[in-house]
Each structure stands twice: as C-alpha cells, then as structure tokens.
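FAQ

Q: What does a record look like?
A: Structure on top, sequence underneath. For example:
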C-alpha cells in the first residue's frame, strides 16, 4: 500500500509559498514523492493541508529531515511549526 506525508501549516502568503513549493518539485521527486494534493482551510487561504504520496515512509522521513526542506520552508514564508504525520494506507474506500 501507499505511504503518505500529511502536513498542516500556516504561511504568510499562499502565492509566495506555492511558487517556492513548485520550485522544489525536483527536490521532492528525487526524494521519492510520487503525487500530492494541497488544500486550503475554508476562510483562511494561508492555512494549508498538504498530502504527498511517497515511494516509502523511509523516504518521506528523510525528506522532512533535510536541510533543503527547512530552507525552502523559510523561503516560502511558513510562519509556524508544521504538524507532520506519516501515514500508511491500510485500505481504499470505494466510490459510493
């Protein structure tokens, strides 16, 4: 089954954050990211939920501990320590 990284954090400016996030695409891909989604909390566009699929939880852990990620988050204007969860998919829910 798939491995996921779930992050919730606040940023100063979503557009600036998104630009840095997109610029780090190669860093994430080379680190093992396969796919992902970004969500904004309704009424608070700078409060983000990011769910990224990884090749393995080990690679997701390594990525979150990298100096490159810390630097990118600082550049992107992350304003608080993110909540981070490492998730293993246990089952898929069929469409209703």
């Amino acid at each position: 089954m798939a491995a996921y990284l779930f992050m919730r954090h606040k940023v100063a400016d979503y557009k600036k954050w998104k630009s840095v996030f997109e610029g780090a695409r190669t860093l994430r891909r080379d680190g093992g990211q396969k796919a992902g989604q970004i969500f904004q909390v309704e009424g608070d566009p700078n409060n983000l939920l990011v769910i990224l699929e990884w090749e393995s939880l080990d690679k997701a852990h390594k990525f979150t501990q990298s100096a490159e990620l810390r630097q990118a988050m600082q550049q992107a204007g992350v304003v608080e320590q993110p909540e981070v969860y490492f998730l293993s998919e246990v089952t898929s829910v069929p469409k209703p």
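Q: Is there anything notable about this one?
A: The chain has one domain: 3-88.
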